[in-house]
Design goal:
Layout lengths: L3 E6 L5 H9 L2 E8 L2 E9 H8 L9 E5 L2 E12 L6 E8 L6 E10 L5 H4 L4 E4 L3 E6 L8 E4 L8 E3 L10 E2 H4 L5 E6 L2 H38 L1
Parallel strand pairs: 1-4, 2-6, 7-10
Antiparallel strand pairs: 1-3, 2-3, 4-5, 5-6, 7-9, 8-13, 9-12, 11-13
């Protein structure tokens, strides 16, 4: 998915200049990295606000058109107003296609409804993490990573080592030997209590059934003795 937007070089800096930009529906920002000097930029507020609502905008290589020239960049930081829906400042990093980048990629959980722990045990899927820190070249960066829950049973977890990562993509945590849990299925207290009560009733029914069988057997033995 290609995401493109426009930016222009900003000639004035400072708090006052930034306030004037915002009053003109512009957003101040900065572009840095790839061994080049940092460049102060400005963006259209309406365009960048709607781009920021896209999940992929936060975890993709973006196409910035800066003063008519193409730049491949990554979104690195966003400052929002405390209570207004206003973007205050945006940081972008230039992409060096020959060097690995570190990005947090969203996890998409699938097949939760057919997981045995949900379908058979009445459990609830708990997402322990919702994004994964990965390292890869820019060309290999995925928009998201799928987590398939179809075989997950209650009380068990999916770990980082269980995920299928795209070619060229590495988990930063796994590289540190940290095979953390990604998702698990937990049984709600109400369901667990119902199951415990049912087990107690079933256990109580066994002696009663045995006693009933003995009582039914007793007349048969007496009949045989009379004969």
């Amino acid at each position: 998915m290609k995401i493109a937007f426009k930016a222009t070089t900003r000639n004035v800096q400072g708090t006052g200049a930034s306030r004037r930009l915002r009053r003109a529906d512009k957003v101040p920002g900065i572009l840095y990295g790839a061994g080049k000097d940092a460049t102060v930029i400005e963006l259209d507020h309406n365009e960048i606000y709607h781009k920021l609502r896209l999940e992929a905008f936060h975890a993709s290589v973006l196409d910035m058109e800066l003063d008519g020239k193409a730049e491949q960049v990554l979104l690195r930081d966003v400052q929002m107003h405390a209570w207004k829906q206003n973007v205050l400042h945006v940081d972008f990093q230039r992409v060096d296609p020959t060097k690995k980048i570190h990005m947090k990629v969203p996890l998409h959980f699938i097949n939760a409804d057919i997981a045995p722990g949900v379908k058979l045990s009445g459990g609830i899927v708990s997402h322990i993490i919702n994004e994964l820190d990965v390292a890869c070249l820019a060309k290999d960066l995925p928009e998201f990573i799928e987590v398939d829950l179809k075989d997950l049973v209650a009380g068990h977890s999916i770990h980082l080592s269980n995920l299928k990562l795209p070619a060229g993509v590495e988990s930063v945590a796994l590289n540190r030997k940290d095979d953390q849990s990604v998702a698990t299925i937990i049984i709600p207290r109400a369901v667990a209590a119902d199951e415990a009560a049912a087990a107690t009733v079933a256990a109580a029914d066994v002696p009663a059934a045995n006693q009933k069988a003995k009582e039914e057997e007793a007349p048969k033995k007496d009949d045989k003795a009379k004969k």
